[in-house]
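Proteins fold reproducibly. Look at a sample protein:
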Amino acid sequence: MFNGEVEKGEEVEAWLSRMKKYFQIYNYSNKLKSRMAIYNLTGKAYIWWQDVKKVKNIKEKYVTWKMFKKYFKRKYLSEQYFEEKAKEFYEPRLRSMTMMRMI
């Protein structure tokens, strides 16, 4: 279940990862994947999804997993989160390169 009370982007990524692992077990269509994910929304996340459907005039039965993830990530993963992840990825490499030059 995902309630939308998010402290860190990692929580969002973890929920998406759990959903992906679940989908690997079952042979769901992309539309059924999105419906299962929507079913697992509670609290603020469920209210957010209801608002998105109204504003975007979305018919839930036509929503694909890819489409749902796009809206979900846009809401729960900020640009700042992705920038921090990129920084975490490149910083260790830059440090090791600097160390190599010093030797």
